[in-house]
Amino acid sequence: MAKAESERAIRALATTWYDTLAEEDRKHPSFSAFKTWLSSNHYSHFLNFRSRMGADYDAEMWFDDELGQTWRR
């Protein structure tokens, strides 16, 4: 899968996933929980792309950016 295609999908799916969370879980969205959700919903193939830092690292950066969590880094 192309990295750019994965980025678009991960960003969109992060928002979709976030919208399903209970109010208390929205305070600190978990990338680990998001990855579990991706796998459960047959979206884990979006984490299969080449990356210097690793696909999980890039996907977590996109996740944090999309959900306004970049302050954590």
Largest sheet: none
Kindly report the oligomeric state of this protein.
Answer: single chain
Strand content: under 5%
> Which of globular, elongated, flat, extended, rod-shaped describes the shape?
globular
Count every beta strand, where a strand is a DSSP E run of 2 or more residues: 0
Helix content: 40-55%
The succession of helices and strands, N to C, reads HHH
Q: What attributes characterize this protein structure?
A:
single chain; 73 residues; mainly alpha; 3 helices; 0% strand; globular
Gist of the model:
The protein is mainly α and 73 residues long. The protein has helices at residues 3-19, 31-40, 55-66.
Describe, in plain words, how this protein is organized in 3D.
The chain is an all-alpha fold and 73 residues long. It is 53% helix and 0% strand. It contains three helices and no strands. It has helices at 3-19, 31-40, 55-66. It is globular and about 35 Å long.
